[in-house]
Amino acid sequence: MAHIIPLGRDRPAPLALKDSTCTGCAVRSIALCGALGCHEAEMLQSIASTRRLDPDDILYQEGDKRLRVYTLTEGVLRLSSLLADGRRQITGFLMPGDFLGLADDETYASDVEAVTACTLCSFTVADMDRLMSRRPELGARLLQLTRTALRQAREGQIMLGRLAPVEKLSSFLLLLSARAEERGLGASPVHLPMSRTDIADYLGLTIETVSRSFTKLRNQGLISLTDAHMVHIPDLRALSAVAGVNPR
């Protein structure tokens, strides 16, 4: 059962990261705030608060009034929408360093839930708008992040357009591998914090088809599974060939 965490009306407590500073944040170099120098980062810290979520907690729901924007600093979030027939469609997964909420209009465009325990920096929309008007480098960084998000969305569309389930799963694993590399982690092994149900709802497949696709890739020697949440990719080029994408 998912849980909604109330926002409350009062200004939240000051930001408290691992060393209690924005400048020491582990994802600062890839996050929106990376555009700011040390002094400006202190300004950002003064308007920030911390949100923590347990697995399956809801950050916000589609249609909620957009009051806050967030930077994910730890954990993994899933974005989803409810289809007309009642089925859930997962539209993406957010990783540490991702910024969410700023591209939405007056209301949020999707449900956002925690896959794992998560920590986020939270800002009111008004505070962030004021800071961006004073610091144009934030706008430039946001444009860069938007371009990255559009590229990832395009890759997702290509992935979902593939006919074979094995191609879809291979593309998904390569996408997670690439995102790990962007964060300074190795291309393999790939950490899969999401459930097989989440993967199925993202790829538009059944759980059984996802499981069979994992088995097929493993039997072909293209992946090995340490456990349900850790996938080794011995040859990225070989897996890219199955996915039908250019190797990195």
Total strands: 12
Q: If strands are numbered along the chain, what order do they take across the biggest sheet?
A: 1-3-8-5-6
Level-1 CATH class name of the largest domain:
Mainly Beta
- Count of alpha and pi helical runs: 7
Beta-strand portion reads 15-25%
Question: Which fold name is given in CATH as the topology of the largest domain?
Answer: Jelly Rolls
Element string (H = helix, E = strand): EHEEEEEEEEHHHEHHEEH
| Radius of gyration computed on alpha carbons | 19 Å
Structural class: alpha+beta
Q: Indicate how many domains the architecture comprises.
A: 2
Distance between the termini: 39 Å
Helix content: 25-40%
- Mean of residue pLDDT values: 82
What's the architecture of the largest domain, going by CATH? Sandwich
- Basic shape: globular
Low-confidence stretches are 1-20
Specify the CATH homologous superfamily of the largest domain: Jelly Rolls
